[in-house]
Fold these 2 entries.
Entry 1:
Amino acid sequence: MGEKIRLDRFLADMGKGSRSQVKEAARKGRVRVNGQVERKTDRKVEPGFDQVLFDGCEVRYCTWEYYLLNKPQGVVSATEDGRHRTVVELLGPEGRKGLFPVGRLDIDTEGLLLLTNDGELAHRLLSPKKHVDKQYYALVSGRLARDAVEQAAAGMVLADGTKLLAAKLEILPGQGRRWHGGDGRGGLSAKGRTREEGQEEPCFTEIRLTLQEGKFHQVKRMVEALGGTVVYLKRLSMGPLKLEEGMRPGEYRRLTQEEVLLLKEWTGEG
Ligand code: URA
């Protein structure tokens, strides 16, 4: 007999939600074990022996896998999508082991994305309570407010009332001359790079922004509120994980054991 684990852990580990979310799903009759609806998630199941269904689909338990991907533009942070290629598809055969992206990067954002099948770790990494830093590089067109750094540090409130945690904004030296783009154009549209006769020279600013949360389009909306427009966005790091300089968009690698341990330490699981 193999090792038995609790049903809530089994489902959470396989990315079906947090433990409380899967508990709630089971209460609603969405979970079956060996053909029977199971509402008690503290019961134990044996991976490979007991059959577990979630919303009618079989969930197979597998050991943890962790991949760091440099997400290219044009690919969606999802496991399935009717229209676009997904980050999971980029991983090829490894992607079929129940991996999912930890959080989302927009389709036009590049950079560090963690893929795993470790639902609990993913949940902790994304929790604003764990204060895991996510650092972004952005090329911004337009001029940011003079007190942009202070506004970000104070915790901004967006126009729709969304309250943000304090963030660290750094204005990098230079005016966006170092365009960073997978396609060599830095994601800038032709319009953004050309200047009509008599028009003012376009102004670009390079910034680094460190957030401890991941609200919808957060970087773009913050920059907009500060008076600019993001024309290129790349995630540089997440907690202890850093995107290596030499890693091209679309490249990926397994995390080392040390990196996995560091991630666990950062999120309070030692
Ligand atoms: N903030 C954004 O606006 N987009 C991303 O993809 C990530 C953070």
Entry 2:
Amino acid sequence: MSKVTVKDLDVKGKHVIVRVDFNVPHKGSTITDDNRVRAALPTINYLTENGAKVLLLSHLGKVKTEEDKAKNDMSIVADCLASLQSAPVKFVNATRGKELEDAVAAQEDGSIVLMQNTRYEKGESKNDPELGKYWASLGDMFVEDAFGSVHRAHASTVGIPSNMLAEGKKVGVGFLVEKELNVLGKALNDPQRPFVAILGGAKVSDKIGVIENLLKIADKVIIGGGMSYTFSAAQGGKIGDSLLEADKEDLAKEFMAKGEGKLFLPVDTVCANAFDNATDTKVVPAGEIPDGYMGLDIGPETVKKFQAELAGAKTVFWNGPMGVFEKPEYAKGTEAICETLANLDGATTIIGGGDSASAAKNLGFADKFSHISTGGGASLEFMEGKELPGVAVIPEK
Ligand code: AMP
């Protein structure tokens, strides 16, 4: 079964609302990475080239205060979007009311209206029923293409399509969501084996669901990063001042028991006597971190061990750095793993968004991966086996 897609909709002359992910990183009004805008272009171009009147909705940043609104004004995306494709783009500095409705009503076929940040509306994150119904009234059809937001049941991701479906209007997924579902769905449901998952990052608590599910599905699960120290402590290891979630030690033990023979942990660690401005850094065996030291990266023996476990893999899912990769002195483990994955022959290599995606881009390896997900949270929830509300609401063909 597969979802209705934008290609199944008869869009000519129709008002098509598209939920895109324009949550771009920015400093002031300068967009520092326009990848998310580029990722939305296949759907936007298809719609404008096929004569739709396109209304784009997205959130940008977190909006709690008036100051946040000023910092996260969607107008910064309008010029970027206009420069990346040829259809006319009109930005509307409103999320409801006459100005927005008039702009939509005046649209020519093949034109784009970009609405102000959806999170300017308090009801967006609460999936406020009135808001979803109102936004749905602005279009004839809806396309879900914000993969980075489909794990959230918000007014723009779930409220609009639910209301449209109730009114007999058509909804579908865009090309970006379709591609993400295909690639991640294949890894989850029918991976080419061996399937190796490599998980890192700060906290066990953020990755419980994904570790649990991947221990069932993958042939090997490799764990690095800050969360590996909770596993080490659970084995009775000395971890000094490293990150520890003491309340997750029992869970770590359970994972190690369930994952016997397929769960791989670091064998050595780079540790330092301070997080900032360390005066002493050394490599020690895992579980032997002296008091006053904290583990900040996987060590060279671990890199070799993980490389050996990755050799021959046919599918790899990677989420989370192996250490504090933002600091060059603790980035070596993450860089080595990233390079290993980039050079794995004949494997489908998938990065589940977030910091691992930034690492691959910064190291210049982005184009050597099969797929870099545009949604960190969404891809993790998908790999956990959870239903994504923004996808669930779109009917099957
Ligand atoms: P996450 O968002 O859970 O994938 O975590 C990413 C963060 O984990 C990055 O900011 C890393 O600096 C951090 N991290 C990775 N390894 C460690 C470690 N050994 N100690 C502290 N933080 C870490």
